[in-house]
Amino acid sequence: MNRCYFFLSLLFLAALPETAFAHGASIQYRETSAIAITANYDDGKPMANAQVVIYAPSDRATPWLKGTTDEGGNFTFVPDSDPKNVGNWDIKVRQAGHGDITSIPVTGGKLVADVSETNSSSVGSDYTTAQKVVMAATGIWGFVGTALFFSRSKSAK
Amino acid sequence: MHIPDGFLPPHICLAGYGITGGVSWYCLRQINRDRHVQANIPKASLLTAAFFVASLIHIPVPPTSIHLILNGMMGAVLGYYAFPAILIGLFFQAVMFQHGGMSTLGVNAIILGSPSIAAYHLFRQRDRFRSNQQLFTKILAFGAGAGSLLLSAGMFAVLLITNISPDIDVNTERTAILLSLGSYGIQAAIEGVFTLMLISFLEKVKPELLKS
């Protein structure tokens, strides 16, 4: 009878969730390559606490990872090295209707070789202030030229 | 207040283009009836330049910064010319500076352009006041500038809140959009004062520019 109670107790203990007995803990570490993104508004201010959604190449409809940027607009993730996830990873950062979507080429869990260390996520944000001023000036001159064309005197036609 | 590419579903973007096409046709028809098209196109062109470049000038309003939209001012000064002017300005902003996007050009034109037509009709009410017209002109100029911006902000918020992607935290995004309406309120006051100052200046130095 005692043996029966003993086996019943063992069965009961085995049925309990494993975590209830997790008195110890262990930390493992390894070196890996992560991709860090920094999201800024176009005036240079960081997009603090903005929502980040990452889509892997194998399934662009379902988010692979969701997160939030820190106060400096930074977010770091480690892409998996699964062969089916070789290609462009889409990163969406959004806050109050503002944000951007960019694609990062990844192979084997790392950035592809021809991508430089720091890349701009949006085509427009890699212009310098001087370039923007020149572009704005050409745009303005186009509109002013249109105005001059239509305001020319009739004798000049 | 420019919605970028990828933030709205395709059917909304297509509907935006459809409505923009209709409103553009209506505005061009009204412009075609204008007897002074040759005189008004240079005015519209110069204000399109102002609209185009205004998005690059950031005004610090703690804790963030804003850039002027000027759609109310354009409506008050240009009338029906304002909508095509804003559409052209938005196109160049999207192409050159990635403010907004090509897929959302139609939606952005509706958000920023249609309030400018409302501002034009509001500002036209000054003709009804024979006495104290200067005072009413100032009040209506402020109302056109501020009201137009508030209308745009309202349309912007409603469109975004009703189309938040389920991939992101809907409540967080909705709260962020509603909080941003506070800064748009400040911007509306700034645009109202700017429109008032510009209209007052034009009325003193070249009042014929304000004739509709």
SSE layout:
The complex is a heterodimer of chains A (157) and B (212).
Chain A: H1 2-15, E1 35-38, E2 51-55, E3 65-68, E4 74-77, E5 87-95, E6 98-107, E7 110-111, H2 129-150
Chain B: H1 10-32, H2 37-54, E1 58-61, E2 64-67, H3 71-78, H4 82-97, H5 105-124, H6 133-161, H7 170-205
Antiparallel strand pairs in B: 1-2
Helix pairs in contact in B: 1-5, 2-4, 3-4, 3-5, 3-6, 3-7, 4-5, 5-6, 6-7
Description:
The complex is a heterodimer of chains A (157) and B (212). By secondary structure, chain A is an alpha+beta fold. Chain A is built from two helices and seven strands, in the order αβββββββα. Chain A has one domain (29-138): Immunoglobulin-like (Sandwich), CATH 2.60.40. Chain A has helices at 2-15, 129-150; strands at 35-38, 51-55, 65-68, 74-77, 87-95, 98-107, 110-111. In chain A, strand 6 and strand 7 form a beta hairpin. The model of chain A has no long low-confidence stretch (mean pLDDT 78). With 212 residues, chain B is mostly helical. Chain B has a single domain, classed as Orthogonal Bundle (Arp2/3 complex 21 kDa subunit ARPC3). The longest helix of chain B is centred in the C-terminal third of the chain and has 36 residues, at 170-205. The interface between A and B is large, with 33 and 39 residues.
Tally of separate helices of chain A: 2
Helix content of chain B: over 70%
Query: In the CATH hierarchy, what is the class of chain B?
Result: Mainly Alpha
So, CATH architecture of chain B?
Orthogonal Bundle
CATH class of chain A: Mainly Beta
Overall morphology of chain A? elongated
- At CATH level 3, the topology of chain B is Arp2/3 complex 21 kDa subunit ARPC3
β-strand percent of chain A reads 15-25%
Share in β-strands of chain B: under 5%
The profile of the biggest β sheet of chain A is: 5 strands, antiparallel
Q: Which sequence of strands runs across the widest sheet of chain B?
A: 1-2
Q: How would you sum up the global shape of chain B?
A: globular
Largest protein-protein interface: A-B, 33 and 39 residues
State mean pLDDT of chain B (0 to 100 scale).
Answer: 88
